[in-house]
Every structure is written in structure tokens, then in C-alpha cells.
Automatic annotation (TrEMBL):
The keyword Oxidoreductase appears for this protein: no
Chain coiled-coil ranges: none
Function recorded in the entry: Catalyzes the reversible cleavage of pseudouridine 5'-phosphate (PsiMP) to ribose 5-phosphate and uracil. Functions biologically in the cleavage direction, as part of a pseudouridine degradation pathway.
Protein name: Pseudouridine-5'-phosphate glycosidase
InterPro entries, A to Z: Indigdn_synthA-like, PsuG
Family, similarity comment: Belongs to the pseudouridine-5'-phosphate glycosidase family.
Binding site residues for Mn(2+): D157
Co-factor requirement: Mn(2+)
Subunit structure: Homotrimer.
Listed Pfam families: Indigoidine_A (PF04227)
Cofactor note: Binds 1 Mn(2+) ion per subunit.
Active site: E44 (proton donor), K178 (nucleophile)
Superkingdom of this protein's organism: Bacteria
């Protein structure tokens, strides 16, 4: 009988070494926080690479991280570099991501490609949720989530963020979703997939640049302890998925609704005329609205992310206390 055991042992270990944990690299700060059982807040990177221009993107990312630290948690900005999911980025990595034209926008479908092909990748809400969950992080702070696009009944353009919210147990703190999207349909879609939308400080779902979408959120919970109790209960029941924590932009940073609506309509019309499709749609609209508003939308965008960082950090601290 031929003995194949040598060949088997020679090949098997390398195949079995490729598990999720071997694809993750923690920064020293995040690794220390994990060892100490401290609260950690995940932060996305598509907002850095595709959501804001350089250098405001890198500057904002650092300031948001500082807010998380100030309020008692450890920030973990997530991206793909050198074939690893990076949980926590150093200055050099953040800079690379913020100014590299090669940075890919990674959603669920793209993660294996960027990792296996060693590409530079920024994670969207969907991909950041996946990576945060693999890293044992329960709270993730961003600007706005993707949603059902206007005209989705013919384009089928529904962000993978919504499916991810239905399946991956991470709470996403955001300023709602932009009205470049169809917000009523976005809420319908979330309802169908069992994703709770929790509003902070008001009854209505937030609309990113403006506080009020005119649409009621499912639940209002102003208190981090209340939000944490809700999430602990959801997950104790074995209910899959996360939750949207909708935190409206502060009044002082809000944009006038009529003004922003005009820019949104124009950007949408230009996107359609230019045949922009697929993953390019959202970055195109964000950049156009920024230009049309003379940079005003960027100021609001930065302010709301910082506000979300405070609310998200309070939630991470509360979840840690209710462990
Ligand atoms: N909405 C924003 N700012 C953003 C994004 C959405 O207000 O930066 C980014 C996020 O990374 C989000 C992604 O996950 O766009 C959604 O892209 P799409 O619509 O292609 O799914
Ligand atoms: Mn899309």
C-alpha cells in the first residue's frame, strides 16, 4: 500500500491555517483593549477613501478616533492592507488609505478579492460590520448607511449594507441615510428583514444632512443603557443581525432642507445622464453634492460623524457594562 501521509501532512497545514482569525491583524492599541476587556468602537474606511476628499478625510478620521478615546473606548478603524483585515490603523496606514487612488471600495462580495490579491481596500458599512464581528466588536460608528436607491424598482440598486444589517450582529450608529436614497423604501426594506431602527433624541429617522426625514423610526431610545439593553435582549433571543441607531446631526450643523434637496436632485440627474452605475453611484453623488454646495455638505458630514462617535462610544461603554 502506498503511504500518502507525508503528502497529506505537507499540504494540509497550510490549507487549514487560512481561517478568519489568521486573516485579521490587530493594532497594538486594539489588541491591548481586547486583552483588558475594554469597550471598542469600530470605524469604517470607505468614508475616508470614497466619502471625503483628502486631506479632510484623514484629518476627520484622526479626530473621530480621538473623540472615541476621550469618551472612554478604543477606536478601531478597519481596512484591508497587505492581505490582512486591519483592526486599528496607524498614522501611515490611514494616510495611505486616505490618499491612494488605488483604494478599492469593499463590500461583502469584494472582501475575499482584496485579501487574496493583496489590494488596498476600504470597507463599506457592510464589510466593516463583517470585520467588526469577526473581531468581536459590537458597535460601529459611521456617517450614513447605504439604502434603497431612488428608482430601485428598475435599477435594482439596493445597498448591500441593508442585507448585512439583517444578518450580522453589530449595532451601526449613523445619522440615518441620505435623501439621495428612497428613505421610505429603505425603511420598508429594513422592516421586511427584521432590522430595528432606533432613533436617538427624536421620534423620526434622521436624513443625514438634515435631522428629520419625516418618517417615524421604530423606537426612540435616548439613553445608551436603554439601547444596550435592547441589543443584549435581541442577541439573547438568537435574533440574527444588527440594528440601526439613528442619531440626527446637531441642530447647529444641519443644512437647510430646501438647499440640500436642490443639490441632491441635480447630482442624481447628472449621475443618470452620465450612466453612473453600480458601486460608483454613491461616491459620485457624495462628491457632486460637496462640489455643488461649495463644500458646505462636507462640513455637515464631518460634524455628524463626530457626533455619532460620542453616541456610539456611550453605547459601547454601556454594552460593556451589561456583558
Ligand atoms: N453614505 C454616506 N457616506 C458614505 C457612504 C454612504 O453618507 O461614505 C458609503 C458607506 O461606506 C456605505 C457605502 O456603506 O457608501 C454604501 O455604498 P453603496 O450604496 O454602493 O452600497
Ligand atoms: Mn448600489
Amino acid at each position: 500500500m502506498t503511504d500518502f501521509s507525508a503528502t497529506v501532512t505537507a499540504t494540509a497545514p497550510s490549507a487549514s491555517r487560512l481561517d478568519a482569525q489568521s486573516l485579521i491583524a490587530f493594532s497594538p492599541e486594539v489588541a491591548a483593549a481586547r486583552d483588558a476587556g475594554r469597550p471598542i468602537v469600530a470605524l469604517e474606511s470607505t468614508i475616508i477613501s470614497h466619502g471625503m476628499p483628502y486631506p479632510q478625510n484623514v484629518q476627520t478620521a484622526r479626530e473621530v478616533e480621538a473623540i472615541v478615546r476621550e469618551h472612554g473606548a478604543v477606536p478601531a478603524t478597519i481596512a484591508v492592507l497587505d492581505g490582512r483585515i486591519r483592526i486599528g490603523l496607524d498614522d501611515e496606514q490611514l494616510e495611505l488609505l486616505g490618499r491612494s487612488p488605488d483604494a478599492m471600495k469593499l463590500s461583502r462580495r469584494d472582501l475575499p478579492f482584496a485579501l487574496s490579491a493583496h489590494r488596498i481596500g476600504a470597507t463599506t458599512v457592510a464589510a466593516t460590520m463583517i470585520c467588526a464581528h469577526l473581531a468581536g466588536i459590537e458597535v460601529f460608528v459611521t456617517g450614513g448607511i447605504g439604502g434603497v436607491h431612488r428608482g430601485a424598482e428598475t435599477s435594482f440598486d439596493i445597498s448591500a449594507d441593508l442585507q448585512e444589517l439583517a444578518r450580522t450582529p453589530v449595532a451601526v450608529v449613523c445619522a440615518g441615510a441620505k435623501s439621495i436614497l428612497d428613505l421610505p423604501l429603505t425603511l420598508e426594506y429594513l422592516e421586511t428583514h427584521g432590522v430595528p431602527v432606533i432613533s436617538v433624541g427624536q421620534d423620526h429617522f434622521a436624513a443625514f444632512y438634515t435631522r428629520d426625514s419625516g418618517l417615524k423610526a421604530d423606537f426612540r431610545m435616548d439613553d445608551a443603557a436603554q439601547q444596550a439593553a435592547f441589543l443584549r435582549t435581541k442577541w439573547a433571543l438568537g435574533l440574527a443581525g444588527g440594528a440601526v441607531i439613528s442619531n440626527p446631526v446637531p441642530v447647529s450643523d444641519e443644512m437647510p432642507a430646501v438647499r440640500i434637496q436642490g443639490f441632491i436632485e441635480q447630482a442624481l440627474a447628472e449621475a443618470q445622464a452620465g450612466g453612473i452605475s453600480g458601486k460608483a453611484v454613491t461616491p459620485y453623488l457624495l462628491a457632486r453634492i460637496k462640489d455643488l454646495s461649495g463644500g458646505a455638505s462636507l462640513v455637515t458630514n464631518i460634524a455628524l460623524v463626530k457626533h455619532n462617535a460620542k453616541v456610539g462610544t456611550a453605547l459601547a461603554v454601556a454594552l460593556n457594562q451589561q456583558r
